[in-house]
Design goal:
This protein has helices at about 20-25, 60-70, 70-75, 75-80, 105-115, 145-150, 215-220, and strands at about 10-20, 35-40, 45, 45-50, 85-95, 100, 120-125, 130-135, 160-165, 170, 180, 185-190, 195-200, 245-250, 255-260, 265, 275-285, 290-295, 300, 310, 315-320. By secondary structure, the protein is mainly β. Strands 14, 15, 16, 17, 18, 19, 20 and 21 form an eight-stranded antiparallel β-sheet that branches. A six-stranded antiparallel β-sheet has the order 1-2-5-12-7-10. Strands 9-8-11 form a three-stranded antiparallel β-sheet, with no helix packed on it. A hairpin with a 4-residue loop joins β14 and β15 (about 255-260). The chain starts with 10 loop residues before the first strand and ends with a strand.
């Protein structure tokens, strides 16, 4: 197959909590307002990404998988997932807080929705001075205590709030209650799933219907992990110009590369596609005679047949995602 760095057309999503940074700062093209999400690489039904550059321009992600199979995603990946692309890549701009929510496990999602679960991670790209996230509980609670607190309107009292800064990273396993706070821009990597149970939504109403947005109280109760963690934030060390481990889970692996000069990458050991998310600065990829510039807020996919390339930048931060 023709192996080169592939960009896809972003799929932009209007959200009640969305802002303008994805358009004004990251140069996403849209005449809509309140853009909360840019789906960079998606195989979600009804929202399948289309190639924006090169020989495959105009083809869908699904077409590339079904045509090239293991050559595109990696043989082990294709053996496990077939024609389904296993992860969904997003940038998120929260002008106001997202709803407090939880995602079901793989087992529950399969039983209830015939879907993958939704294990995910967040990397904070930009945040206002008072930006924060909600991740997990601030104490261990019973199911009954959770229900009572929710019914009394005091759910925020038992949730863990994290003040955040650029570079902070959180892994959100299924079952963990969470919410992105106002003024925060996030790079999100997750399993391919659009299943979310909304627990609490600050009594907001839908802009079209004028009715309160739907809550999934009953579904969420059995999906929640009520345990408390000592430290929800991911601790990691950063070494310039090399791949440093960020989050390695059973569902995806993410490393972080702080580029300050040119480096060579050799993926001959890896039986997987590779995705680069530029979360700061800009960098160039030289691969098989092709050169591509990747700016902040852009995403590139390298097919599994890509083995050797050069990355170059005076200053860039890149998330490197693979299976």
């Amino acid at each position: 197959m023709n192996s080169y760095p592939i960009k896809f057309n972003p799929i932009l999503k209007e959200r009640i909590w969305g802002g303008t940074k994805l358009i004004n700062t990251f140069k996403k093209e849209s005449n809509k307002t309140n853009i909360g999400e840019s789906w960079e690489i998606s195989d979600v039904k009804g929202d399948v990404s289309m190639v924006a550059n090169g020989a495959f321009k105009g083809k869908s992600l699904k077409e590339l998988i079904t045509t090239y199979k293991g050559n595109f995603v990696g043989n082990k990946v294709y053996h496990q997932f077939g024609d389904e692309f296993p992860i969904l890549i997003k940038f998120i701009d929260a002008k106001t807080p997202l709803s407090i929510q939880v995602h079901p496990s793989n087992q529950l999602a399969k039983e209830r929705h015939n879907s993958f679960g939704k294990n995910e991670m967040w990397y904070v790209m930009d945040v206002d001075s008072d930006g924060e996230l909600i991740v997990g509980f601030n104490k261990e609670v019973s199911k009954k205590e959770y229900i009572d607190t929710l019914e009394n309107g005091n759910i925020l009292n038992i949730l863990n709030t994290e003040k955040v800064k650029t570079g902070d990273t959180f892994y959100i396993p299924t079952g963990r209650v969470h919410a992105i706070g106002a003024g925060t821009v996030i790079a999100e990597i997750q399993q391919t799933s659009d299943i979310t149970y909304r627990i609490y939504d600050y009594e907001r109403v839908d802009a079209i219907t004028g009715q309160p947005r739907e809550l999934h109280t009953d579904l969420a109760v059995d999906a929640i992990d009520y345990r408390v963690s000592k430290d929800y934030k991911t601790n990691y060390s950063l070494t310039e110009n090399t791949s440093s481990t960020l989050v390695h889970s059973p569902y995806f692996k993410t490393d972080i590369i702080q580029l300050t000069h040119s480096i060579q990458k050799d993926y001959s050991y890896l039986d997987s596609f590779v995705i680069y998310m530029c979360v700061a600065g800009s960098f160039s990829i030289d691969c098989n005679g092709d050169t591509l510039i990747v700016n902040t807020g852009e995403t590139v996919l390298l097919p599994a047949t890509t083995k050797n390339l050069n990355l170059s930048s005076k200053q860039a931060t890149v998330l490197e995602v693979y299976l």
